[in-house]
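Wait, can you check?
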Amino acid sequence: MQFTILSDEDLPIRGDLDAPPEAKALVVIVHGFKGFKDWGFFPWLAETLFAYRFAVCRFNMSRGGIGENPDTFDRLDLFAEDTYSGQIADLQKVVRYCQKRVDAPVFLVGHSRGGGVSLLAAEGIDNLSGIVTWSAISHTDRWDEATKALWRRIGYLEVENTRTKQMMRMSPRMLDDIEAHRGRLDILERLTQIEQPILVIHGARDESVPVAESAEIESYALDASRVVIAKASHTYNAIHPLINVPFELSMAAALTARFVSVYA
């Protein structure tokens, strides 16, 4: 079932929710930076988890840059004004929407920045039973002082989308959000308040988020297990579109399904 709800800023949040009768769990998949719900392995992961009789939701953040075309970054104006606080609010609103339609324990599965956002959003989610992070960030402030100074001076920071070759601009609104809410956006500090179990999955060959960040997450969490998958990249060796399913991706999905089954 496809759905569209409005964010706290009255922007569309588009998603897919598939629920079997008497679902054992509700799993919400959270994409990361420059990600989207139909990228690469996300549809496959949703289908895989659905086969375990889990209800599964995947959605696009309201300021992720994807508009009505599910595979195109055609709303770079929205992307430019994205914030962590906005992503947290989007995730919590999507979970509440799904909970009205599925009565089951809730699990978050977040990839990359989506993993960090899942950890930050946890305290505002009722009936949360566990969190799985894939290649998650452990810090929201990821830029050095020189980069931030230039960012503020010229009014934007450009990042390249290596798949589409688009140059995607970010306004200083992201920096403003981090500086205004340092405590609330401190992932490691938030981890010390999360009582639910956490499964931390990371690739040994992650080229985007250092594997050391997974060790930080594990060390600060109250109840966490960590698995580092040898030879796995940031996307578990998957590409977009997903042509075949790498072994490393299958392993991450199997670990996730097992974790949800145990704690549901």
Notes: Residues 102 and 134 are 24 Å apart (CA to CA). The chain has one domain: 2-74+83-140+185-263. DSSP finds nine helices and ten strands in the chain.
